[in-house]
Specification:
By secondary structure, the protein is α/β, with parallel strands linked by helices. It is built from 14 helices and 17 strands. Strand 4 and strand 5 form a beta hairpin. Helix 4 packs across helix 5 and helix 10 crosses helix 11.
């Protein structure tokens, strides 16, 4: 040990310095020299490359019935089933814990349909029987007790939905902080990611962000929006925030109906659910496409107004149902007749048939566009 001033140890002591302190210097590892700090490589570790980061807080949000749970389940079961790819992105194998606060009946069918569709024999995945208030001592301890009893650590824990696991008001910064603190404790204890499934606001301008306090977004490592399929356009999976990496390009997908083997309803009819499959990116919208979207929106509104009928597993709208809706909207009889004439390609029915959006069936029309039919069937539930 060399004294920090000129001279030897004897001179150091004679000048009034503490010689013994040189032999046990104080430890200062809180502040690290920048040169040393950047020496250790620290590349981002991904669970789903470019989309779900390891040991991160993630949120996936979208409107009710928009397909966000289908997307999250697809990620989870690809991890838990050992499938190495999601829409071209590398997937890391891992154990999944899915904290489900609602919709257990539908969730059971979705998991069964996915396993059948993907020929999956076994999933390293566990689901909760109900929800709990995660941001309370009792709720957090319940989660700890159950996770501690598992034979393996989870790679990711999904909280679906945030509202079902939050005690308090999602608009309150105090309640938001208590939930974020609980998530941080879970992440630290199990060295895993936490993915929150949340809703967007009701207004059209709020569909790109999560409902509630702005503190949610500030705390996230990754934020993802699910934009529902609409007007013939497929579902869009959009990354809104990626704190440590460049944001990924949007992914397009749609839901495909799957009959679940061995599942029948009380009338003996096969029970089906849906699985997420890749879809082509939509073409840019021009004026013609915009007019077609407006036509289909009218058709969709009439379908809902007339009872959302299903014929041969496709959305069906009768001629009478569409006519009654158009008349109730204030259209004149002559205009309605023109709209219902299939030989007029510029009007409602003619344009939709020409674009292969609908086809005549029985006393009306069925939706034959896969994306639009899938979206309507999903919303109907």
């Amino acid at each position: 040990i060399m004294p920090p001033v000129e001279g030897d140890a004897n001179d150091y002591a004679l000048n009034g310095h503490d010689l013994s302190a040189l032999l046990s210097p104080p430890v200062n590892d809180w502040l690290i020299p920048a040169d040393d700090f950047c020496q250790q490589p620290a590349p981002i570790k991904w669970i789903v490359k470019g989309w779900l980061q390891d040991k991160a807080l993630i949120m996936v949000h979208g409107p009710s019935g928009g397909g966000k749970t289908f997307v999250v389940l697809d990620w989870c079961m690809r991890m838990a089933g050992g499938y190495g790819d999601w829409m071209g992105a590398k997937v890391r194998d891992g154990n999944v814990v899915y904290l489900a606060g609602e919709g257990h009946h539908g969730l059971r069918g979705r998991v069964a349909a996915w396993k059948h569709h993907n020929q999956c024999a076994r999933l390293n995945m566990w689901l909760s029987r109900d929800g709990c208030d995660l941001n309370t001592h009792a709720g957090l301890q319940r989660v700890f007790d159950n996770l501690d009893a598992m034979p393996v650590k989870p790679k990711i824990i999904v909280v679906d939905t945030l509202h079902r696991f939050l005690s308090g008001d999602e608009n309150s910064s105090v309640d938001t902080k208590s939930m974020l603190d609980a998530c941080a404790k879970v992440m630290q204890r199990y060295e895993c990611s936490v993915l929150l499934v949340h809703h967007t606001g009701v207004n059209e301008e709020a569909q790109h962000r999560a409902r509630g306090s702005s503190a949610w977004r500030g705390a996230l490592d990754i934020e993802i929006s699910i934009v529902p399929a609409k007007d013939g356009r497929p579902m869009e999976i959009v990354q809104r925030k990626s704190k440590d990496a460049e944001m990924s390009e949007p992914i397009y997908a749609q839901l495909e109906s799957v009959d679940i083997p061995g599942w029948f309803d009380e009338d003996g009819a096969a029970v089906n659910s849906a699985v997420l499959v890749a879809a082509d990116a939509p073409a840019k919208v021009d004026k013609k496409d915009s007019k077609l979207s407006a036509h289909f929106k009218i058709f969709e509104n009439a379908w809902w107004a007339s009872g959302a009928e299903i014929l041969n597993n496709m959305p069906y709208l009768s001629r009478a149902g569409l006519k009654n809706k158009l008349l109730s909207d204030g259209k004149k009889e002559r205009t309605v007749v023109n709209d219902l004439t299939p030989s007029r390609p510029d009007n409602l029915i003619g344009a939709l048939i020409l674009a292969n959006m609908i086809a005549p069936d029985a006393h009306g029309w069925v939706v034959i566009n896969d994306v639009s039919a899938s979206a309507l069937m999903m919303q109907k539930g």
